[in-house]
Amino acid sequence: MADVKRNYNATARRERAQLRRRDVVVAAQELFEADGFQATTISAVARRAGVSAESIYKGFGTKAALAKAVFDFVIAGDDEPVPMVQRPEILAVQREPDVRRKIQLYVAGLVERQQRSARVQILIRDGRHGDETLRETWQTLLDERLVGMTMFGRHLLETGDLRPGITVEEVADVLWTYISVELYELLVLLRDWSPERYADHVATAITAAICRPSV
């Protein structure tokens, strides 16, 4: 009985800690988007989240690391410890046999993720010019995006339906470019394209750039 109680207590503590962490991340997201990165203090985040500033420093280390945690939260849509490649929408892309449909499915999920994450990405991207601590965070986002697109590019190449002679590096570069937050910013945020129009444009452009011509 004692072991059961200890296990229960440990589980309850982990759940409480996860909830507190989520509260901090959500509070940081709200303040970053409302006031900007530089104007937002850890103390302000702590007040909104109902925790101590010391606990935020202990849990995240720096404000830049907190910004990265906010990005990870909004890109996934939750704080579950499940890698993107193991999530249902990505598994559906992997199972789809048609390469053009794979691209369409991936882009549909991408647009949903960009709707949640674009403003945070832009905040980190632009904030790095005024705050050195964000430079590494932005570079990490770029590097992670390239790693993900290299994996996806290799998967697409394995279908045998990409244009002859194209390399995984070129496929990754095309994907890395077309899924960038800059394109979303230009067309959706600045030119008021609908998400549906944007998704169709990106999927069509990627398909034209890397796939064999349709017979």
TrEMBL record:
Coiled coil residues, start to end: none
Residue ranges of the annotated DNA-binding region, renumbered to this chain: 41-60
Matching InterPro entries: Homeodomain-like_sf, HTH-type_TetR-like_transc_reg, HTH_TetR, Tet_transcr_reg_TetR-rel_C_sf
Alphabetized UniProt keyword annotations: DNA-binding, Transcription, Transcription regulation
One Gene Ontology molecular-function label: DNA-binding transcription factor activity
Pfam family, one: TetR_N
Domain (HTH tetR-type) ranges: 18-78
Protein name: TetR family transcriptional regulator
Organism per entry: Kribbella rubisoli
